[in-house]
Amino acid sequence: MASNTKSAILAQHRANADLNTPLLPQVARDDSDLAADGMCAPLDERIIAAASAALENGQTHYVDVPGIGPLRAAVADYLKSVAGAHYRAGNVVITAGVQESRFLSIQMIGVQYDSIALPAVVHPGVRKALGVRGRNPRTMPVDPAQGYLPSIDAIVQAAADGCRLFYLESPSRLSGAAYAADEVAAISQIIADNDAAVIWDQGLASWVEGAYASAAALDSDCARAAVIGEAYSGMGLASWFVGYIAAPEAWVSSMQSQKQIMAICTSTASQYAALEAGQLYTEARGRQLSRLARLRTDLLGAAGEAGLTVVGGEAVNIIALKLSEDNMKKISRAGIDFAAGSLFGAPDVIRLNVNHSTAAALTALN
Amino acid sequence: MSKKKKAGTSLLYQLIGEARGYDDVIIMGRGDPDFDTPPHIVAAAKDAMIHHHNDYTPPQGLLPLRQAIAERVKRVNNIDVDPESEVVVTNGGQEALFLMVLAVTSPGDEMIVPEPNYNTYADSLAFAGGVKVEVQTYAETDFRADPQDVREAITDKTRSLLLVSPNNPAASVIAPTDMAEMLDIAIEHDLMILADDIYDLFVYDDFQHVSPASLPGGKERALTLNALSKAYSMTGWRLGWIVGPADLMARVTELKAAVSGGASVISQYAGIAALTGPQDAVEMMAEAYRRRRRMVLDALDEMGMKYGMPQGGQFVFADIGFTGLDSAEVAQRILTEQHVLAYPGSAFSKDRKDYLRMTFLQPEDQLMEGLERMKVAMDNIMAEKK
């Protein structure tokens, strides 16, 4: 017998465009997949050994909800080293990947504010997380010339309109563009002046060569900024789903309670693997950055020769292209999987991962 | 002071936190089996670290794991599901629970919940904006959920019925005839069913667990959760699942993607090994729980505590009303004075301040020690009362 109750649930579900936004894969499905958020990378034998040892030593049980203590401390140290953040271990929640970080931060910090301001171009996981409880964000216009980041003026306007919670990506998950230090200082000032708060996705900061500016660095008393991201990108752990949130302790408390409700804790093996990855990260990151930067430079050259418009960005693991309709059809016909800008809010842009297959994708556009 | 004001999950946090401070603490609270994960499952995880660490895993989980789950729910629960479209892998039973509640609940919707029940259902329902409508059960009838009580609790806002069998914390198993009647009620009133089968391998004596989705007309309106945590002693791996009709599971998949994206690929390969490999460890653990359950019941009888007969699960829900104290206070005193952690009934339901939940998830010598210490604490409480 047909169920009207179920039909009503499904009708409501189909109408929820945000929730039904496709999520990008966490790693490539195959060589032609350049759409993934994370990177397929070799896994250091020492990481395997550390995770294996933990399992063999009986670390197969529940652990603390916000994560194992040493990993929380290591993430706090990592954030201090890459972004000058002031967090301590008690400010960190280890999550089951960056999407859980988005969900927990948006839902649990968001509930304290009347509205949340998002860039018009933002990772699809953000709208998806908001769609769970059908919350309508305030959208901040973005500037294509600035890599689709909201301008300082756009943020000022959102604050003037009464918005007190901001969700910002730096680098942009679409273009890799990051705010400069003076812009971050201006954003921090807007946040402070308006007694506001910011959720700052800096997951791609790992892939910025040179200095990186984070809102967390300017939040010296850890009161207004929560930062989120993947734990130790590029260390071969993308499919292990380990992420983090670092935030003021009052927010950590509510996110910890919600984490207990929705997952209890993050996989023990993943946490011990991440702990070891953190030990090896600095050295490995240096090597990867150099390799990816070289690859990306070559790709920028090839794109220029092909007359393609590259969207400027600092993160060396991705390259974003603004494409004509013809080129959009060409790359689709070539069977190359890319991250469609339409999922982010920029329908004429695509994002490609930078790896040994990316050059072939550009060739398809020649 | 502030300690006594805490309730539900917060209260449990407080007790767990204090318990950590005692080197000789005996945990009879948290539902974490003392057995480590069986070695062949750990070996499969290590193999996956070498050969599969970069595998793409969709939000609904690896297909081989979904196939193993489909075979398991057919074999154990007699539920037919298509692994392609009717199974979603989750970060443990807890995420399955959360997603299941979100999937069927809109703000203002009522869910009928036989009480006492696992406190996270209330928390998840609150997150979704739903309303819990309690149907009480009682120790005198071994915490049987009476279908007639369920029928009387239905209003025009009722959208779903929660059926946890074996129940946590009361350890009751819904009898097959009652389960059939529950399903009839759900069909008659067009309710969705949320079925929690997480303790389905731990049913004692002659009691029998039936999954509502296995009954005619059940699958179309039931979401059923389970996990590897309790059966395979894999609480730290965070691996569970939901099965249900394809149309509703499409919604569950989107919710899973929104909430956390996916589950650890290493845990998923371990899960395949658990479900498809040798099952002797499960039987060994089940046998140990049968013995321990008897130990706990004998000790409670000696202490003069009443309880509903635990028909399944890994715990006993015992009446401490004779102390005249709130269960939070009794749990606090047992912990502080004797370093034994048991969970107060008030953490599960505001109406169960007269109960303690005790798990039997400790080695037998420690369990015996814990029960002896608990008896000392209870004797002290009763001596003060006199």
Structure description:
The complex is a heterodimer of chains A (366) and B (386). Chain A is of the alpha/beta class and 366 residues long. Chain A has two domains: 22-43 and 281-363, Aspartate Aminotransferase, domain 1 (Alpha-Beta Complex); 45-279, Aspartate Aminotransferase, domain 2. Helix content of chain A is 42%, strand content 13%. Chain A has helices spanning 4-14, 45-56, 69-83, 98-110, 124-131, 152-160, 181-193, 249-262, 268-305, 325-333, 341-344, 358-364; strands at 92-95, 117-119, 138-140, 142-143, 149-150, 165-169, 197-201, 225-230, 243-246, 309-311, 318-322, 339-340, 349-353. In chain A, the strands form four sheets. Chain A has a five-stranded mixed β-sheet with strand order 1-9-8-7-6, with helices on both faces. In chain A, strand 10 (309-311) and strand 11 form a beta hairpin. Chain B is of the alpha/beta class and 386 residues long. Chain B folds into two domains: 8-28 and 281-385, Aspartate Aminotransferase, domain 1, CATH 3.90.1150; 55-276, Type I PLP-dependent aspartate aminotransferase-like (Major domain) (Aspartate Aminotransferase, domain 2), CATH 3.40.640.10. Chain B is built from 13 helices and twelve strands. A seven-stranded mixed β-sheet of chain B has the order 2-8-7-6-5-3-4, with helices on both faces. In chain B, strand 5 (158-164), helix 8 and strand 6 form a beta-alpha-beta unit. The longest helix of chain B has 24 residues, at 280-303. Chain B is globular, with a radius of gyration of 20 Å. The interface between A and B is large, with 67 and 66 residues.
